[in-house]
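Ticket closed. Logging final result for DUF1853 family protein.
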Amino acid sequence: MCAQADTYQALFERRWRHLRRARVRALAWLLDAPDLLDIHDPHWEGRIATLGPMTEETARWLAELDADPAPLDAALGSKMYTRLGLYAEKLMAFYFAHQGRLVAHGLQVRASRNDTVGEFDFLLDAEGGGNAGGVEHIEFATKFYLLQGDATTGFDTFVGPNLADSLGRKMRKVFERQLELGSHPAAQDVLPRPVVAARALVKGWLFYPRGTYQAMQGITAGHCRGFWCPLAELDALPGDRFLILPRLQWLPPFRAQSAVWMLDKAQLAAELEDHFMASSAPVLVALVREEPDNIVEFERGFIVPDDWRDRANARLHP
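Final structure:
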């Protein structure tokens, strides 16, 4: 891992420490975090979208939302979100609507009443197109993958914590199916205007075996990253204060005035042992430091069951 001064957490803290509200910090992360995939790499064939650099106008808007979150709270509604992807989509829809570019969000395409072909995550006014022009289809994803094996062998070596997905499989599905939705005959009945561009916007974190890092062509060099390690290696982790992060707090680095669920290393070990007795799901843990008025994340990583590597290998090489 890189030195603490170079971590994404340190960069985020310097830029956004003035934001106090979790929803606003999550939105700031979505807008300002590095793209997970390198938009310039020819592997992606120019089909990766980017939001571009954060503007001072958007930074001021985020500060205003932090002072008065009523517009954001109204857009998100009173629903308790359980799916991280849906929560992130709603935040992005709020941003695109603020920009004045949002044409549709979550627009379903059906071949028949009981046959759903797919869904457009976002349809945006094409740049400079206005109502007379076409729309841009943005397929949006926030992903968390762990490197299992040698990164040079391909994107399938980045696997989801629960081993149900991989970065390679996800992007093949996006390119071969989801970004082609605009040309499906059934889509023509619901599209307000023709799709003139279709690209994927991908944010997220990649996690590497503790103490290692492998650069990979196609992955943005400055992407958000952390570590993973089996429970048996827990004692080797630095620091002495930890938080188990609920799924809806996986997006930005953690910062709060207090956290009643903060654990020392022995307490963390006990919690994880109990968890893995009932579940094989890896757990995302934030390593935090206590400041006079805040608790701040300085590193994060997935703790996995001790047999996770064997199960991941079996999934990769059946």
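The longest helix spans residues 84-99. No further action required.
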